[in-house]
Amino acid sequence: MSNERGIHPPLLEHAKLRQPLTAGEQQVFQMFNQSLTPDWEIYIQPHLNGLRPDFVLLNPKVGIAVFEVKDWNLNAMRYFTKLDEWGHPTLWAEKDGKEFCLQSENPVTKVNLYKKEIFDLYCPRIQSERGWATITAGVIFPFAPAEQVKVLLSPFLKTTQGDDHAKYQPVSGFSEISTGNMELVFPEASRSHSFLMSEDLAKDLRSWLVEPDFSSTQRAPLTLDRNQRSLAETRTESGYRRIKGPAGSGKSLVLAARAARLANEGKSVLVATFNITLWHYLRDLIVRDLDAPKQIRNVRFTHFHLWCKHVCYEAGWELRYDALWANGREDVLNTELPLLAAEGVMQPGASRYDAILVDEGQDYRPLWWDVLRKACKPSGEMLLVADATQDIYGTAKAWTDDVMKGAGFPGGRWAQLSVSYRLPPDALNLARSFAEMFLPEDVVDLPQPEQGSLDLYPCHLRWVQCSPDNAKVVCSEEILALMHQTGKNGLANADITMLTGNMSSGAEVVSRLNEYNIRAVDTFGSDHRRRKMGFYMGDAKIKATTLHSFKGWESRLLVVYVTEAANAQSLALVYAGLTRLKRSQEGSWLTVVCSAPELNRFGTYFPDHAIGG
């Protein structure tokens, strides 16, 4: 029966889940898979706009069910409830004389929230009154008696609809799971039809339940071509290597594969980026090639200025570090802090690494590279990867041949990656055209197509030209339109990514999405540095960030919001955005919303060109 129904993620990939199923969750899944009719789809740890229920069941003819599973042994410690300061019951436990609150883990509170959000937000076409009965919200304790569970949770099981709705909030335990008693675990499973449910309602919910493309990709080992694999598995005689290549040519893959190989050997590795958000992407790549998850401990992730700060603190120079910022001088980041770190890294006890790998090297200044070299152990490795076409800070031109020789690189050429494995062919051609029209003439490192890929990776390319006055409205509407592509083609709403050149424009779009009760994980606002630390593609919400912060990343559902194209840096940013689209045989979608009049003519090259607003 498991081959007939929809199971997400697929059965063969359950052993690779980033959050493995507990023993109880495995039992519950086996029962659902064996006992439910094939019309029932099973979603395991689905992405639900930021919520992560244990199981969601969906049958277009019958209804929806959400379940929370707890492996708690109610005899291992004392579980009880007590009233909070507002007189509301809360869930507690006591062990070794210490009490701790479990209300955040209260399974009834969780499933009630899931049910309410499904009803209010994700299935808005459910009938407002009777449709509440379409959704079952169940609690399962596979290792505790059901009656004991019901006594413990009784203060939370009261429903505003009355006792008639008790069957829509079933509570089951050890006996029901071990015997596969589906009538008690999920009473509505025996129904064959409900006039309150429809395929349209199922489509509404699927777009939130389907596992995002990025999450499924995380379970696959890195795939490298012969050239990439050679670079990842070897070192030069000097230990220094520089790699250049256009967007999507696999520079980050090579860096990640090399880091994984060294970590597997027990070597200490420092992975340094320019932007904070790239850490998460590189870490996700590296873990895919590790022999064991624990090997990730051998890899330290940082951006250059944070590394400088840590060097100063290791040397005991907190006051010297703080003094740099006393007058808010502009040259602190570029010069003064690196020079202080260069002094600090030579102090006794400073951290040294067997290998230092730098991604997006075109954003680094030669001085920064020289300071990092001091932290590399004798006979260690240094790797620099770069793409001059994405020189959004104007620093790439500083890397002259003479500078390279003084930076530890012997004579000879860069190692070159040319073929783009990221971009669909049609998107690649548009990106090349943009570079040829708007980037400096001396930039020749453009992506080359892979042989034989022309008909394998369909993509949908749309350009919407609009005025600055209505751009945020147009952008939010285009994001909503992309939501119609999810729930199929291996895509989920969490795959949608919006990129923009500045934080204020992005914040306006996110605010408008909030009006539709659509949550986004974003890097906008005064606390943007903190938000960047929490930005990763595996998050269950729609993504929104700046073009700067998304360099190196990729997505199959992309909205690029262009507000400026008047100078070299802004044009390099637009090019970077155009090259973030990830190819797939199931299709990719790129929408550009542009309020910069300088690019209106280029927009007409898109197969789908429109005037917004």
Quick overview:
With 613 residues, the protein is an alpha/beta fold. It has 21 helices and 22 strands.
Strand content: 15-25%
Q: Multimeric state of these chains?
A: single chain
Give the overall shape: globular
Content-based structural category: alpha/beta
- The structural domain count equals 3
- For the biggest β-sheet, the strand order reads 18-19-17-20-21-16-22
Q: Radius of gyration in whole Å, from Cα?
A: 27 Å
Highest CATH level, the class of the largest domain? Alpha Beta
Explained architecture:
The structure is a single chain. The protein is α/β, with parallel strands linked by helices and 613 residues long. The protein folds into 3 domains: 203 residues, Restriction Endonuclease; 191 residues, P-loop containing nucleotide triphosphate hydrolases (Rossmann fold, 3-Layer(aba) Sandwich), CATH 3.40.50; 187 residues, Rossmann fold, CATH 3.40.50. The protein is 33% helix and 19% strand. The strands form 4 sheets. A 7-stranded parallel beta sheet has the order 18-19-17-20-21-16-22, sandwiched between helices. The protein has a 6-stranded mixed beta sheet with strand order 1-2-3-4-8-9, with helices on both faces. Strand 1, helix 1 and strand 2 form a beta-alpha-beta unit. The longest helix has 16 residues. It is globular, with a radius of gyration of 27 Å. The model has no long low-confidence stretch (mean pLDDT 87).
